[in-house]
Design a protein that fits this description.
The complex is a heterodimer of chains A (377) and B (326). Chain A has ten helices and 17 strands. Chain A is α/β, with parallel strands linked by helices. Chain A has an eight-stranded mixed β-sheet. Chain A has a three-stranded antiparallel β-sheet with strand order 1-6-5, with no helix packed on it. A three-stranded antiparallel β-sheet of chain A has the order 2-3-4, with no helix packed on it. In chain A, strand 16 and strand 17 form a beta hairpin. Chain B contains eleven helices and 13 strands. The longest helix of chain B has 18 residues. In chain B, strands 1, 2, 3, 4, 7, 8, 9, 10, 11, 12 and 13 form an eleven-stranded mixed β-sheet that branches. A two-stranded antiparallel sheet of chain B has the order 5-6. Chain B has one domain: LarA, N-terminal domain (Rossmann fold, 3-Layer(aba) Sandwich), CATH 3.40.50. The N terminus of chain B is likely disordered. Classes of the chains: A alpha/beta (377), B alpha/beta (326). Chains A and B meet through helix 1 and helix 2 of A and helix 4, helix 5, strand 4 and helix 6 of B.
Chain lengths: 377, 326
């Protein structure tokens, strides 16, 4: 687009309000502001989990970053702002993405298979994964996204009227819209709507503990078992994520784990061994572990998609380490999308893509040998 | 980004001045008031600053020497509402001088990252085909570049105002203390041109501040820096804290963004010292990104390599030589 065309494009939206002769006025007197969508109103709900610092500024306690933020500045997430030493969330009630998805898309394979979830996200994220598949919203500030306006009550009303049993907080990073997620989950719970969280697990213990009292299932991206990977690729730290996984597991809230296998960065056999071993040792053999295929996006467009063979190797290693429920993601039609009884090998839930074709579990048990498959069915 | 040679000075000084960065500082003689300067005062200061910096005899000639292209951006800093943001009166004066130099008013684009912040700082938005344009990157039809630009540790989208709309840009920040970076001036102001500034505040913004300014469109299009140092938040910034707000009464102008910031740092540290504050280094906020920027070739952060000219202008526009820190 040439400059003049660009100018016209930008200008045409404002032309109706620009009737006055503005030439002599310059900046101080131009009065056509109404032509803009300048009031992309952001929320001013006070954030939770922060403390005021002596001498001014605040320290956020929501995630392990503990951003110290002075007046009119924002934390790393870009969606929480210090306004006169009151920390505020700018995205409460302002989702920028909203869809009805199968629960398998999150993915949850042991949580009410075949049901749907009203899936929402706001702008912002507290890490910066170079492979992010949703970077357009996760790495944006709320001014840069087109936001809807849905209160927690409005979301619950949609679910009730459309008979959608779940709300999923997903796509970007729900931790950064904690208040919105928490209030919606609490309201949903009162109305019989379940809440599921899809997160990187980069959250402090206290807010997580409160959240665990209101939600029904959490899927955590364990992006790698290597500290170096978290430092260089994720812009975060591994330790807090491992603690989050342990805390969720102890709480009894349903947990599934996803690892995105990125070619050359975290796809060695040694790493698959270490990751699977850690999951079995610290969380148990019956936590579902999904290995997902990477597609080149965001800052890693130089890498190819994960080869199917690599994912199958990961599957074999995790099974050999003793994990009972291992799945491969982003490989539609692959046999490893389905659930097999770990005791007798019977196919108990047949899936293709995000669709459930057959579920033969009887009261969560294998119809052939009676093995109880963990999860909520 | 070598400094602009000053022909007058060059005749009387040794040849190496050609290879030094030039910075001009113009102070207003009647600077006792803490109230904002009006456009008339800024016009006198800018006129003097352009001439002092370039060695030209009149402001039109001076502007032609340092401002390039047909469409010119004026990047403001409007993060902190009306106080500690780029004054409307300064931008108004600058726009009038550019029009006097032959630019069409509609080819001047006053901008920052959001229309909301521009508005809160007192600017009137204008996206029409008449008058000086004034718009945030978030306005309909603008937004950020479709592809990422990378420089060292920074990967960002850049405002399309800079990449697509303007031929060159004049960076008009405010000199102030910054709680993380130590100092906010020209380089830090370019955080307002990228989509993800919140990702780059660790380690006193070093090396990020330098890397942001090294992003190709920023490096290529930033032709001039004019730092407003009339009223300086020397501690407690970037927000407004009245207890630490001082009058300096100056404008800093240079085509070397690093050298302009370096002089800004001298002023900031001087104001901190005279008002009983520790140096930024002792306060735990050393401004390390200037040395990083120099190492990247963005400009000069070494005082001995900066050709500094300081003048004082009075209410009648008369100019006389002055000291930087007096």
């Amino acid at each position: 687009m040439k400059r003049r065309s660009f100018l016209k494009c930008v200008g045409c939206g404002a032309s109706a309000a620009a009737a006055a002769d503005l030439l002599p006025d310059f900046l101080g007197l131009v009065q056509n502001a109404a032509a803009f969508d300048l009031q992309k109103e952001l929320s001013k709900v006070e954030a939770r989990y922060y403390k005021k610092l002596p001498g001014g500024g605040i320290e956020c306690g929501l995630c392990p970053r503990h951003c110290q933020v002075t007046d009119l500045e924002r934390g790393f997430c870009g969606v929480r702002e210090n306004q006169a030493d009151v920390y505020r969330t700018l995205v409460y009630g302002l989702p920028c993405a909203m869809n009805v998805d199968p629960i398998e898309k999150k993915p949850f394979f042991h949580f009410y298979p075949g049901t749907e979830a009203l899936s929402i996200a706001t702008a912002g994220c507290n890490v910066n994964c170079k492979f992010c598949q949703n970077w357009e919203i996760s790495q944006s500030r709320p001014e840069q996204t087109n936001n809807y306006n849905y209160t927690p009550q409005a979301l619950v009303d949609i679910c009730l009227s459309q008979r959608i049993p779940n709300i999923a907080y997903t796509y970007s990073e729900p931790t950064v819209f904690y208040e919105y997620m928490y209030d919606t989950a609490a309201l949903g719970k009162k109305n019989g709507i379940r809440s599921v969280v899809v997160s990187g697990g980069y959250i402090e213990r206290e807010p997580l503990a409160a959240l665990l009292g209101t939600v029904d299932a959490i899927k955590i991206d364990l992006k790698s078992i290597r500290e170096e990977y978290y430092k260089n690729i994720v812009s975060g730290k591994l330790g807090p994520v491992l603690k989050t996984l342990e805390q969720i597991r102890k709480s009894g809230v349903w947990l599934e784990i996803v690892t995105l296998a990125v070619p050359t960065l975290n796809d060695s056999e040694a790493e698959f061994h270490d990751l699977s071993k850690w999951v079995k040792t610290n969380l148990g053999s019956d936590v579902p572990l999904h290995f997902s295929q990477f597609y080149p996006k965001y800052l890693l467009t130089n890498l190819p998609p994960t080869p199917q063979k690599t994912l199958e190797t990961a599957y074999d290693i995790a099974r050999a380490e003793g994990l009972e429920y291992v799945y491969l993601g982003n490989l539609p039609g692959h046999p490893s999308e389905s659930t097999h009884c770990p005791k007798c090998g019977e196919l108990v839930i047949e899936r293709r893509g995000f669709r459930v074709y057959r579920n033969t579990l009887a009261k969560s048990c294998c119809p052939k040998c009676g093995w109880k498959v963990p999860g909520l069915f | 980004m070598a400094g602009t040679p000053n022909p007058v000075l060059h005749e009387s000084r040794s040849w190496y001045i050609y290879y030094m960065s030039s910075v001009a500082v113009v102070k207003y003689s009647n600077r006792d008031s803490l109230s904002p300067f009006d456009a008339a005062v800024y016009t006198r200061m800018l006129t003097s600053a352009f001439c002092l910096f370039t060695g030209a005899k009149d402001v039109v000639e001076a502007i032609h020497r340092v401002v390039r292209g047909n469409t010119v951006g004026i990047k403001t800093n409007c993060v902190t509402r009306k106080v500690n943001s780029t004054p409307v009166s300064l931008v108004d004066a600058l726009a009038r001088l550019l029009v006097k130099a032959g630019y069409l008013d509609n080819d001047l684009v006053v901008w920052d990252r959001t229309s909301r912040e521009l508005s809160a700082a007192g600017f009137s938005l204008n996206a029409s085909m008449k008058g000086v344009r004034c718009t945030g990157t978030d306005a309909n039809g603008i937004g950020y570049s479709n592809s990422f630009f990378t420089s060292g540790s920074v990967n960002s989208l850049i405002s399309r105002i800079l990449t697509d709309l303007v031929d060159s840009n004049i960076n008009v920040p405010v000199l102030k203390d910054h709680s993380v970076a130590g100092m906010s001036a020209g380089l830090k102001n370019m955080y307002g041109a990228i989509n993800n500034p919140n990702k780059y505040h660790a380690d006193n913004c070093n090396p990020f501040c330098a890397h942001v300014s090294a992003l190709e469109p920023i490096r290529a299009k930033n032709k001039l820096t004019i730092i407003d140092a009339t009223h300086v938040q020397y501690q407690g910034g970037p927000g407004y804290v009245p207890d630490y707000f001082a009058q300096y009464g100056g404008l800093i102008i240079s085509d070397d963004p690093v050298a302009a910031d370096r002089i800004g740092l001298e002023i900031l540290e001087h104001l901190r010292k005279t008002n009983g504050q520790p140096s930024l280094e002792k306060a735990g906020r050393p401004v390390m990104y200037l040395a990083t920027a120099e190492a990247l070739g963005l400009g000069t952060a070494t005082m001995s390599k900066i050709d500094l000219r300081v003048a004082e202008v009075d209410s009648d526009g008369r100019t006389k030589l002055a000291e930087l820190l007096s």
